[in-house]
Amino acid sequence: MIIAIDVGNTNIVLGCLDSKRTYFTARLSTDVKKTSDEYALMIRSLFSLHGVDRHAIEGAIISSVVPPLSLPLQQAICLVTGKTALIVSSGLKTGLNILMENPAALGADLVVDAVAASAKYPKPIFVFDMGTATTLSVIDKKGNYIGGMIIPGPVISMNALANHASQLSHVDLEAPSKLIGNNTKDCMRSGAVYGHAAMVDGLIDRAEEEIGTKATVVATGGVAPIIIAECKHKIILDDTLMLQGLLLLYQKNSRKPEPRRGAAEKRVPQKKG
């Protein structure tokens, strides 16, 4: 059983899982002002809340798009479990062939998504991760990560409207009852939800045209359920994709090498009689 932590710009998703089951998941607000002690208290409380023995943890792994939080969270996990967490970086073994101009610059979250999707779904694969940003990762039929897109997410788009248009206010992201809104809030919601859904549908069409074949399309992230419900393409909603990818990466990078048996290895002869 391990702790897997995905640090996003808005939320931190924490999961306690192994190959057989997920024991619990939790969502915390991302806050760079919190100390390692404060995060340790929160993590320890989650174990108590869900009735999971923190001493049963064998290890941990962190994926972060907020670099200042990587070390405090690593320290917090060590305080709670006594284990040193792996941090997803260019030094980890991923099994992923990244065909980018600078593979080391690819975001940790995109790497983790791609590792999990490659292990679970038929290739080629398009992975949409919908949070603060909406990202598209494209994995070709050979399993190569060939590129993608980074797009402002629906929430940040609505917030930008409210911040820059004096007559518009902040509204929650939810699908209105119909496409054509008849009040300002529903018009904003319709634009964010249906507009984003139409964008996703359009990107799938264009990306499939570019790679020359149909693809398996997978979506994950905090706002994915709202958006995918309004898409016309067949899209697999996988809200545990990131945690599963972190588990796979932990397993790839924490296995102890098997002892090698060389020529110098000799058996001790047993005495007769």
What is the topological layout?
Blueprint: E1 2-7, E2 11-17, E3 22-29, H1 36-50, E4 59-64, H2 70-81, E5 86-87, E6 97-98, H3 108-120, E7 125-130, E8 133-139, E9 144-152, H4 154-164, H5 184-211, E10 216-220, H6 224-228, E11 236-237, H7 241-254
Parallel strand pairs: 1-4, 4-5, 6-9, 7-10, 10-11
Antiparallel strand pairs: 1-2, 2-3, 7-8, 8-9
Helix pairs in contact: 1-2, 3-7, 4-5
Q: Main β-sheet: number of strands, strand sense, barrel status?
A: 6 strands, mixed
Question: What distance separates the N and C termini?
Answer: 48 Å
Roughly how many Å is the radius of gyration? 22 Å
At the third CATH level, what is the topology name of the largest domain? Answer: Nucleotidyltransferase, domain 5
Shape: globular
- Give, in spatial order, the strands making up the sheet with the most strands: 6-9-8-7-10-11
Number of strands: 11
Q: What is the percent of helical residues?
A: 25-40%
Give a quick precis of the structure.
The protein has seven helices and eleven strands. By secondary structure, it is α/β, with parallel strands linked by helices.
